[in-house]
Amino acid sequence: MMLLEPYLNFNGNTEQAFLFYRSVFGGNFTVLMRFADMPGSEKMPEADRQRIMHISLPIGDHVTLKGTDVIDSLNQQLQPGDNFHLAITVDNEADIHRLFNGISAGGTVIMPLGKESWGELFGMCKDKFGIQWMFNYIKPVK
Question: Domain Glyoxalase/fosfomycin resistance/dioxygenase: where (predicted)?
Answer without folding.
Answer: 11-135
